[in-house]
């Protein structure tokens, strides 16, 4: 035909050029004809989302969440990694109101690492917690304890959880966004989401009786109830912030004030207190009303009526209850950093 | 066309001359998308779809445009242009007409636009001088073979995730070793004919 008579120098660029123009035009036509109407807000929201596709919101990835938000099926606070700051910005774009929710982080409730709890059998198999726990509950002596094979570590999209030297998972509260992937990944259900301000935790979820726990784990809960008795929250034992149920102590994070008293009396050091506890200090303004003395749960304050009271720094556990009890007009008692010589050995 | 011939083409494309394990084409998506079974399936479906359509369109382009105009030597570049346009076009149509299908395999379509496996099957159809039906079947069966290799690989890699692999081999190195072993296994089909 005509093209084959031309020299190849001309015919090849002509033909390929023609093909290119033809294809380009058909694509341009197709992009108009087959365009999909997308709400521009979806793209705007998608751009400010964290982009981790962790699934905490319950939708397939950040794009799915953005689409659901615009449709009105989701609320801006559903995104755990984004937190309050993101919820506000998303609410601005959508034109809705948003109420604040406290940030939650994951906490692992087991303290029985490999140097404390021994294995009753040698496990040779898939290095996966779910796989190991399928075989008779796992190789550890404690059937409820952490197996240390890292399912939670692998499930975290934010690199916020790692195994320490004891083969126990440790959560980095700065990186943790409360997405809940590790909670679902743990076959022993040892991880829970708690408000970030709660700093006192029971590191045991064993339903075994105290005598059995004592034999296999030196830091396991033996259900002695000392924590429940000393807890200052509530009057009746069932109303307190820490209750022993099913042979294990459980903290109610809605009512717990993180005073740390339970941690000081726990005989097995199962309860850990992460707060740098300070000591109470009484100033000269004290009028000797004895309110703080009566409120102190460990009896660390001494003093006569109408006389300057004194705090014994060795007994004081830094729970801060006395500071709240001192009348606001007087405010004679405050917390000060603990001097090294005063460090209380019992503080867990 | 005879059924026996078509069956031979299918057996050959899926087992004897498997695109990934025997011809070593399309390795990038093979290694890239084979970490999980469901994404491997999605990728496989997309590849079957594209290979079949590409076989059809490129065959038509070859015998109705390139050969009549005497520019058969431009086959490679014309096929690349055609396949790229075709995949873009198909993606747009799918996005518009079937959102469910788009969410299932739409994201994989750009990944296989200039995949050498797709170009390979188009060119092989021409060099082996197959008819239109045979080319279609060859395209479909090659996609099927690619999917088979992907599914096998993803099943093995999912198990490898939780095995105690030596640190230097973790991730890609052990995947390649496994692919090599699979390829040796598929050599057992060599010379097989009906």
Structural key phrases:
heterodimer, A: 348 residues, alpha+beta, two-stranded antiparallel sheet, two-stranded antiparallel ribbon, elongated, B: 71% helix, globular
Name the assembly state. Answer: heterodimer
Give the topology string of chain B: H per helix, E per strand: HHHHHHHH
What class do helices, strands and sheet pairing of chain B give? mainly alpha
- Mean pLDDT over the full residue set of chain B: 88
Number of helices of chain B: 8
Helix percentage of chain A: 25-40%
N/C terminus separation of chain A: 93 Å
Using only C-alpha atoms, the radius of gyration of chain A works out to 30 Å
Number of strands of chain A: 12
Radius of gyration of chain B: 18 Å
Fraction of residues in β-strands of chain A? 5-15%
How many strands, which pairing sense, and closed or not: the largest β-sheet of chain B?
none
Low-confidence stretches of chain A: 342-348
The structure class of chain A reads alpha+beta
Side by side, the strands of the main sheet of chain A go 1-4
Biggest interface, and residues per chain?
A-B, 23 and 23 residues
Count of alpha/pi helices of chain A: 13
Shape of chain B: globular
Largest sheet of chain A: 2 strands, antiparallel
């Amino acid at each position: 035909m005509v093209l084959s008579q031309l020299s190849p120098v001309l015919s090849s660029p002509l033909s390929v050029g023609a093909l290119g123009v033809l294809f380009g035009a058909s694509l341009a036509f197709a992009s108009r004809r087959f365009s999909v109407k997308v709400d521009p807000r979806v793209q705007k929201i998608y751009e400010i989302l964290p982009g981790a596709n962790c699934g905490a919101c319950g939708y397939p990835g950040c794009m799915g969440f953005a689409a659901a938000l615009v449709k009105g099926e989701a609320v801006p606070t559903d995104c755990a990694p984004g937190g309050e700051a993101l919820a506000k910005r998303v609410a601005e774009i959508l034109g809705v109101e948003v109420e604040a929710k406290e940030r939650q982080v994951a906490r692992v409730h087991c303290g029985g690492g490999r140097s404390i709890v021994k294995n009753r059998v040698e496990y040779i198999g898939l290095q996966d917690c779910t796989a190991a726990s399928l075989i008779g509950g796992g190789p550890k002596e404690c059937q409820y304890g952490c197996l240390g094979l890292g399912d939670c570590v692998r499930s975290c999209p934010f690199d916020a959880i790692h195994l320490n030297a004891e083969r126990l998972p440790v959560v980095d509260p700065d990186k943790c966004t409360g997405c809940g992937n590790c909670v679902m990944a743990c076959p022993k259900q040892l991880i829970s989401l708690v408000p970030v301000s709660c700093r006192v935790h029971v590191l045991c979820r064993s339903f075994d009786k105290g005598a059995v726990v004592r034999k296999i784990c030196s830091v396991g809960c033996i259900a002695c109830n000392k924590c429940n008795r000393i807890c200052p929250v509530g009057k009746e034992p069932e109303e307190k912030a820490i209750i022993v149920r099913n042979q294990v102590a459980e903290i109610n994070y809605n009512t717990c004030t993180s005073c740390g008293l339970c941690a000081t009396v726990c005989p097995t050091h199962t309860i850990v207190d992460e707060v740098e506890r300070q000591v109470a200090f009484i100033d000269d303004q004290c009028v000797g009303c004895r309110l703080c003395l009566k409120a102190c749960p460990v009896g660390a304050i001494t003093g006569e009526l109408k006389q300057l009271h004194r705090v014994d720094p060795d007994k004081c556990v830094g729970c801060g209850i006395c500071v709240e009890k001192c009348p606001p007009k007087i405010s004679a008692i405050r917390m000060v950093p603990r001097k090294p010589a005063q460090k209380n050995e019992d503080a867990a | 066309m005879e059924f026996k011939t078509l069956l031979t083409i299918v057996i050959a494309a899926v087992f004897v001359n498997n695109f990934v394990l025997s011809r070593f084409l399309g390795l990038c998506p093979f290694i890239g998308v084979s970490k999980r079974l469901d994404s491997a399936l999605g990728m496989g479906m997309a590849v079957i779809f594209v290979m079949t359509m590409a076989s059809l369109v490129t065959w038509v382009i070859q015998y109705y445009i390139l050969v009549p105009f005497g520019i058969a030597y431009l086959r490679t570049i014309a096929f690349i242009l055609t396949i790229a346009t075709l995949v873009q076009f198909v993606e747009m149509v799918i996005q518009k007409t079937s959102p469910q299908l788009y969410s299932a395999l739409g994201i994989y379509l750009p990944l296989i636009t200039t995949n050498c496996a797709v170009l390979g099957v188009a060119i092989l159809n021409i060099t082996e001088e197959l008819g239109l039906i045979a080319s279609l079947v060859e395209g479909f069966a090659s996609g099927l073979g690619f999917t088979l290799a992907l599914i096998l690989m993803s099943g093995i890699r999912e198990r490898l995730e939780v095995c105690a692999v030596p640190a230097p081999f973790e991730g890609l190195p052990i995947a390649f070793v496994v692919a090599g072993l699979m390829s040796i296994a598929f050599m057992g089909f060599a010379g097989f004919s009906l």
